[in-house]
Each structure stands twice: as C-alpha cells, then as structure tokens.
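Appendix B. Raw example, untouched.
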Amino acid sequence: MSTPEERLAELGLDVPEVVPPVAVYVPAVRSGNHVYTSGQLPMRAGELMATGLVGAGVTAEEAYACAQQCALNAIAAVKAEIGDLARVTRVVKVVGFVASAPGFTGQPGVVNGASELLGTAFGDAGVHARSAVGVAALPLGAPVEVEILVELAGD
C-alpha cells in the first residue's frame, strides 16, 4: 500500500515546506486525534500563484490549480504537526473560500481542485464533508483559501 507522499509523487508533486503565517497564528493545531489547519493560500515558492477575483481576471481553471496548491500547503502543515502522513485516517472536512466576482457561482468546481488532490493523496480516507464559499476578498488578494480538518490514528 502506498503512502500519501508516494501517491502525490505519482502526480509529480512533493509535499512543500510549510508556508510561514502571514499574521498571528500557527499553520496547524493538534487537538486529541484531530489536526486543524489554518486557511492555506496558494503560495508556491514564496509567492501567490495568482491574485484577483475568480470570474474577473482569474479563470476558474487557474483557481482550481490554486485550490490544489492550497491543499498541498495544508498537507504540509499537517505533516509538520504529526510527522507521518500515514497517521491520517480520514480527511474529515474541507472548507474552501473563493474570492468571487459578482455573479460567479462556480465555487464548488474551484474547490474540487483541493478535494480531488486530497482524494488522490489519501484514497478512501480522503473522502470528506465540504463547504465552498464565495467571498468578496481574501488575504493578500489570493483567489482561493482552503482549510482542512483531519483525524489521526489513536496513539
């Protein structure tokens, strides 16, 4: 059975370094057998992949790729907190925020970028509950922000 990192590697992806917080918070917190991540932006190599509103300057396809990066960054935050991603027994919940132009209603399709990546990485344990919310603006002008909640195997 392959690990989450091995499944991501099959896609040509690596778990990145944890993105440093842009304000006063930590990337992830463990409480009992759960890890909650802070909202993760689509940062890659220290920069946002895109800025602006989805549906006006940022396409749904670009935002989907941003949501994937947000999920990778969330995975990195979880890994930094627990050490071994194989300890994740379930991705419980995903919340995706999409900075949306007026009239844009494709938030679920955008957040699918995160959901599909988590499903690939964690297999059946990656099936989760989810919210996809349109908002007027996100930190630093990001088009997408994603947070996750995962459950761990008992100690």
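End of appendix B.
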